[in-house]
Write a structure and sequence with these properties.
This protein folds into 2 domains: 2-70; 90-457, no CATH class. The protein is built from 12 helices and 13 strands. It has helices at residues 2-12, 20-42, 44-47, 51-66, 84-96, 163-169, 181-195, 256-259, 305-327, 368-388, 402-406, 445-457; strands at residues 111-115, 149-153, 174-179, 201-205, 212-217, 222-228, 233-236, 247-254, 267-271, 280-284, 287-292, 331-336, 394-399. The strands form 3 sheets. It has a 7-stranded mixed beta sheet with strand order 4-5-6-3-9-12-13, sandwiched between helices. A hairpin with a 2-residue loop joins strand 10 and strand 11 (287-292). The protein is globular. The N and C termini lie far apart (54 Å). The relative contact order is 0.16. It binds 2-acetamido-2-deoxy-beta-D-glucopyranose (3 copies). One 2-acetamido-2-deoxy-beta-D-glucopyranose (NAG) binds at residues 123, 125-126. Keywords: Golgi apparatus, Membrane, Signal-anchor, Transferase, Transmembrane, Transmembrane helix. One of its GO terms (cellular component) is Golgi membrane. Belongs to the PC-esterase family. TBL subfamily. Residues 105-157 form the Trichome birefringence-like N-terminal domain.
């Protein structure tokens, strides 16, 4: 049945530009894969040993990843391996460059990946806050070429990350990441980057699930916290073990777990998107206004773009309202744009995201879903900035990472979300779980934070 579906799909889809309808169908199926991943990654304790779940989603997921649209692709060649001397010199340079001058406004959204000889600021053993599933090095990923790239914007320069400059800026300040597991991925990347200069201390965490954490860099009295809030607005999350496969999202209620902390924040980095692609029922004013992937419920099926736009716009409007109501210390509100996934083979085989180097600029176009999700955030930021006005002390910015992330099929954990996935012999035909959504650390997600640094310094 899956095979038939695939054959039909592939026959229909030789052209690169698909009609919107088919993209939405694709997205519909894609969300199953994402649902599985989120289930797996956010509830690791529950997921272990849940082979039933694996079996259930396997068929649909196999359909998704094979139904992808193949763009002609050219991968960049691997850069030459750095010589040991270059590494040493790089460290020296980095210290010399610690004074990062305020740069002219630069469009970081468009550019290409260029070879970089300098090693990352941290590795799988030097940083203690890497989530297990993203520690590709410690989990035995054998290739290292994916570590030696830097993002080169088309018209300007993106300076290397300076932990010193970031921590000095963050002195006596509080930065919070708010969002889903991609927000957490970016938060943990920032913690590792900063830890290469000064060790963070875990000051708070809410039990085992790690939904809310706060870290303090004592030397700088700088605080970084992480809030779990996958829709930004209020949600009753799905509970698959209890047979609830839809998130119930309340567009007219805010998620006070983070919203109530707004007054204490100097920077909020909001990053959501992927959870809108998984099954959801959306409520507004006591009515169901949208339903995504809900053939089994008695609601009319809608796409998720409208409710995504709504959730973002309402959240930014509320941030502005509370700010002008007196929660008002000077504040930067940055939104990370959609970060594309790169499933390409069978999701449970070795080759789900097997590429070992980036795409060349322009060789891999953005999918329809990714492009719409990105655009929604960029436009919401623009209109929130217009509405807040200069002089409000509230600055909105987009961390426009969609294009640069789209070009990094090589940056995901893939099978190395688990330790030593091929232990005890060749990969062969063995089934393994693959994560082609989140990012290895170190990896391309560190670039998100290079852009964040330039954004707060501006
Ligand atoms: C990781 O970094 C630490 C500290 O910089 C270093 O001692 C160690 O050799 C590195 N490990 C790898 C695998 O590169
Ligand atoms: C430390 O930082 C917090 C913000 O996170 C600030 O409220 C507090 O005043 C700072 N402490 C000192 C001694 O400056
Ligand atoms: C769905 O709607 C139909 C017709 O209105 C009704 O007969 C049926 O019981 C409803 N099913 C559920 C699960 O509410």
């Amino acid at each position: 049945m899956v095979t038939n579906f695939l054959q039909k799909y592939q026959l229909q889809n030789h052209q690169l530009i698909l009609p919107k309808k088919q993209f939405i169908t694709y997205a519909l199926y894609a969300l199953v894969a994402l649902a599985f991943l989120h289930y797996l990654l956010f509830y690791p304790a529950l997921a272990s040993g849940k082979s039933v779940v694996v079996a259930q989603v396997q068929e649909e997921v196999a359909a998704v990843v094979s139904a992808r649209v193949d763009a002609p692709e050219q991968l960049l060649p691997l850069p030459p391996p750095p010589s040991p001397n270059q590494g040493d010199k790089a460290l020296g340079n980095r210290q010399a460059e610690e004074e990062v001058p305020a740069p002219p406004p630069c469009d970081y959204s468009d550019g290409e990946w260029a070879p970089e000889a300098r090693p990352p600021l941290y590795n799988g053993t030097s940083c203690g806050t890497i989530k297990d599933g993203q520690n590709c090095m410690a989990h035995g990923r054998p290739d290292t070429g994916y570590l030696y790239w830097r993002w080169r914007p088309r018209g300007c320069d993106l300076p290397a990350f300076s932990p010193e400059a970031f921590l000095r800026w963050l002195r006596n300040k509080h930065l919070a990441f708010v969002g889903d597991s991609l927000a957490r991925n970016q938060a943990e990347s920032l913690l590792c980057l900063l830890a290469s200069r000064s060790p963070p201390e875990l000051a708070y965490r809410d039990g085992e699930e790690n939904r809310f954490r706060r870290f303090v860099f004592r030397e700088f009295n700088a605080t970084v916290s992480v809030f779990w809030s996958p829709f930004l607005v209020k949600v009753a999350e799905k509970a698959e073990h209890a047979g609830v496969r839809h998130n119930n999202v309340f567009l007219d209620a805010f998620d006070e777990r983070w919203m109530s902390q707004l007054g204490a924040l100097d920077v909020a980095v909001l990053s959501v998107g992927h959870w809108f692609l998984i099954p959801g029922v959306y409520h507004d004013g006591g009515r169901v206004v949208a339903c995504h992937d809900c053939a089994d419920l008695n609601h009319t099926e809608t796409d998720f773009f409208g409710v995504f736009r709504d959730a973002i716009h309402r959240t930014l409007a509320e941030v502005t309202r509370r700010h002008s109501d007196g929660a008002g210390k000077k504040k930067v509100v940055a939104l990370t744009t959609f970060s594309p996934a790169h499933f390409e083979g069978d999701w449970d085989k070795t080759g789900a995201c097997p590429k070992k180097r980036p795409y060349r600029a322009g060789e891999k176009g953005l999918g329809y879903t990714e492009s719409e999700m990105r655009k929604t955030v960029v436009e919401a930021v623009r209109s929130a900035a217009d509405a807040a006005g200069a002089g409000s002390g509230l600055r909105f910015a987009a961390l426009d990472v969609t294009a640069l992330a789209n070009l990094r099929p090589d940056g995901h954990p893939g099978p190395y979300m688990n330790k030593d996935p091929f232990g005890g012999g060749g990969a062969g035909d063995r089934r393994v779980q693959n994560d082609c959504v989140h990012w290895c650390m170190p990896g391309p997600v560190d670039t998100f934070n290079e852009i964040l640094l330039q954004t707060v310094l501006r």
